[in-house]
């Protein structure tokens, strides 16, 4: 029996936020995850993932350094962003919604992420998007220049492993 549990072979995590009315984007790399996702058994499916905050890249080293500072992500005290599944719902076809606990800077909030799961012969591909309010996690402060809403896109693929039947 195969399920989507295995080794991450590809990942892309990107984000978008309006800064002075202009969409500013970036990426976070180094996804580490334990995924056990079986569409036929969503109640036992789990996802635990983390990324290293110091991998934030906006193609502007000065801005990246500012994002690493205490004012924004405080990398020295909170080096990782964590995501842990709470529940999954099937919406039809390849469409699902996951409820996750997202932890940034020691603050945890539940988020819902609609995602597509594509079950291939040897891999499982996940693509999802969700939004957060950066102020909920103490990222920066109220600003007339920087939007509070951040859109996060996750696209990853995992090589499946055989799971033993008992």
Write the layout of secondary structure elements.
Elements lengths: L1 E18 L2 E7 L3 E5 L9 E7 L8 H8 L11 E13 L2 E10 L2 E13 L3 E11 L15 E14 L4
Antiparallel strand pairs: 1-2, 1-9, 3-4, 4-5, 5-6, 6-7, 7-8, 8-9
Question: What tags apply to this protein structure?
Answer:
166 residues; nine-stranded antiparallel beta sheet; 1 helix
Describe this structure in words.
By secondary structure, the chain is mostly beta strands. It has one helix at about 60-70, and strands at about 1-20, 20-30, 30-35, 45-50, 80-90, 95-105, 105-120, 125-135, 150-160. A nine-stranded antiparallel beta sheet has the order 2-1-9-8-7-6-5-4-3, with no helix packed on it. Strand 6 (about 95-105) and strand 7 (about 105-120) form a beta hairpin. It has one helix and nine strands.
Query: Which percent bin holds the helix content?
Result: under 10%
CATH superfamily: Lipid/polyisoprenoid-binding, YceI-like
Oligomeric description of these chains: single chain
Query: Helical region count?
Result: 1
The beta-strand count equals 9
Judged by helices, strands and strand pairing, the structural class is: mainly beta
Q: What are the segments in which pLDDT stays under 50 over at least 5 consecutive residues?
A: none
> Which CATH C-level class is it?
Mainly Beta
Number of domains: 1
**CATH fold-type name:** Lipocalin
Query: Radius of gyration in whole Å, from Cα?
Result: 17 Å
